[in-house]
Amino acid sequence: MEGMFLAFLSLRGYRACRVVAGRDKQNYVKKEECMSKEIPKVNKCAAMSCIYNKGGLCHTPAITIGDIEPCCDTFQKAESKGGYDDVIGGVGACKVSGCSYNSDFECNAAGIDVVVVEDHADCGTYKPRSG
Ligand code: SF4
Ligand code: SF4
Question: pTM of the entire structure?
Answer without folding.
Answer: 0.82
